[in-house]
Specification:
The complex is a heterodimer of chains A (about 525) and B (about 90). With about 525 residues, chain A is α+β, with helices and mostly antiparallel strands. Chain A has five domains: about 100 residues, Uridine Diphospho-n-acetylenolpyruvylglucosamine Reductase, domain 2 (2-Layer Sandwich); about 120 residues, Uridine Diphospho-n-acetylenolpyruvylglucosamine Reductase, domain 3, CATH 3.30.465.10; about 80 residues, Alpha-Beta Plaits (2-Layer Sandwich), CATH 3.30.70.3450; about 90 residues, Vanillyl-alcohol Oxidase, Chain A, domain 3 (3-Layer(aba) Sandwich), CATH 3.40.462.10; about 35 residues, Orthogonal Bundle (Vanillyl-alcohol Oxidase, Chain A, domain 4), CATH 1.10.45. In chain A, about 30% of the residues lie in helices and about 20% in strands. In chain A, a hairpin with a 4-residue loop joins strand 5 and strand 6. Chain A is globular and about 70 Å long. Helix content of chain B is about 55%, strand content about 0%. By secondary structure, chain B is an all-alpha fold. The radius of gyration of chain B is 12 Å and the shape is globular. The two termini of chain B are about 20 Å apart. Classes of the chains: A alpha+beta (about 525), B mainly alpha (about 90).
Chain lengths: ~525, ~90
Amino acid sequence: MTLPPGMSQRDFSAALRQFETAVGKEWVFSAPEDVALYRDAYSPFWDEEEERTASAAVAPDTVEQVQSVMRIANEHRIPIYPISTGRNLAYGGAAPVLSGSVVLDLKRMNRVLEVSEENAYALVEPGVSYFDLYRDIQDRGLKLMIDVPTPGWGSLIGNALDHGAGVTPMRDHWSTQCGMEVVLANGEVLRTGTGAMPNAKTWQQYKYGIGPYIDGIFSQSNFGVITKMGFWLLPEPEVVRALRVTAPRHDDVIKMVEIMSNLTYSGVIDSQFTLASPVLNGPRDAELEALAARPGGGTREEWDRYAESKDRPFWSARFTFYGPQPVVDARWEYARQRYSTIPGVQFEDGPTYRFPMSREQREQAPDKGMLGIPSLSNFTGRTPATPEVADGHMDFSVIVPMTGHDVLAALKVIGRDFAAAGVGARMGTISSFHLRTFILISSFPTMRADREFNRRVRAAYERAVKVTADNGWGQYRSHAAFMDLAVSKYSFNDDALSRFHATLKDAVDPNGILSAGRYGIWPRDMRGST
Amino acid sequence: MQRGQEVFAYWCAPCHGAGPRNPGTIALEVRYKGLKPAALEERTDLVPELTRMFVRNGLSIMPPFRKTEISDADLAALAAYLAPANNSSLQ
């Protein structure tokens, strides 16, 4: 059985009994089969000594219980690792960064506290999943659309805190967060924004409150336990209409991205678009491999010839517009006009969806994410096209500037690095997941029964972090096993940022009990030894 | 049975419901190649021990489910709902 580092079984058992008093005996999990439920299901260290494992889990139901747990943890110096729904599977799941931590499972705190249709916001607890809020809104017949990430079982709060995103105009979840309640390491409750003014009614309407805007320090960090968070929502639009654009040639990406970025910055396009290459990301044959394998890659002419021989456009992008019909149609038409300046460009309209949608229409919709309907339909395992699959995956996500040149460079560098690694890392599409840049999300497989394979995958992942950082492409989000490495790349001025994080950590969590090691922020007595 | 059906609808159906676009059902279709029904509610061989094992251990990309998600009581209800005695009428 794993214990918190440096703690005796006896002291730990005493602390567990205090946790039981705080939340009830049935909600403290210390038996091995129960603690095993908090393993990282996709761990790249599965069954190895280095696998990050919890010592126990505690599941509170109220803010008061969270406060009690924090006080007990501080008294005994027990490392705590809060999770919301614990479904951050691509980035480390429910397992702590520091082995021996006690997981604080907030899933039971799953109340939708308030939804305002008039002011288009919701206030939720950490255990509320996208499925939960969606159901609540649908059951109440409210004309509100939520923004969902790919899998719908995640927590709105957890996802926002890790800077996750979806596809609609509200896709940058952290930016739509408005107001939060936090339990600090010392057990005190803090409310941010205008929530700090006891009689204000604008907690979910105005983010900044007064003075320093501190909400950000609670994201991708370990400075507090979030127990409530507000989110801005989109009023259900009249229509959602998509536009697909393809361009034939390798170099067309320059113009394509120039137009899409300008339309984004101007507000004509305000939802996520993905940029993919049906050639580079398409079926790989010997000719493609040969071109890709060359030191400088193929020449522009060679690529264009290849694309033409396969009768495939080189680039494809999809844009989606949300809003009243005439406004959507005008934006759609204007975007089409701008892209028409690229010779050989082709367009495809739709699909177009009209609201309100019936329950059946919602169930039948093929692209639910686009319509703010949570699902797991993109969470695919075996399919007829991919009958052999890995046991799990780790996401590798980098920030690439929004220009065609950078797209080409990223595809080339990362493609080559992945091919050399030979572990089946899959490059994903490039998208405007976050508002004014590109995010490229790729996927590394993990296998439960093959340690040698996992070892190679870990090495490949680390190398990919370094190679992309060398090119100025930082991680926007990190897998738990590689957080120190990811953060180390943000090293300006002798790691001034990391040193600042450490200063904050020592101030707000002097005993270092919260999520030790998350995003490279360690308690004082563990710094430098990692 | 109603509780079991509710648990299935909430926790399992998004992947294991019948119909297209359910990744668990798609995966099982590939795995079983027609030898067994791919949709779990149509299976006639899911003894409770098997359901419990999958829910608490996961398999392939299916992760395990914690007790704060599917409690032991809910798991028992789910297992009973999917068990052969309940589904024999579907043969």
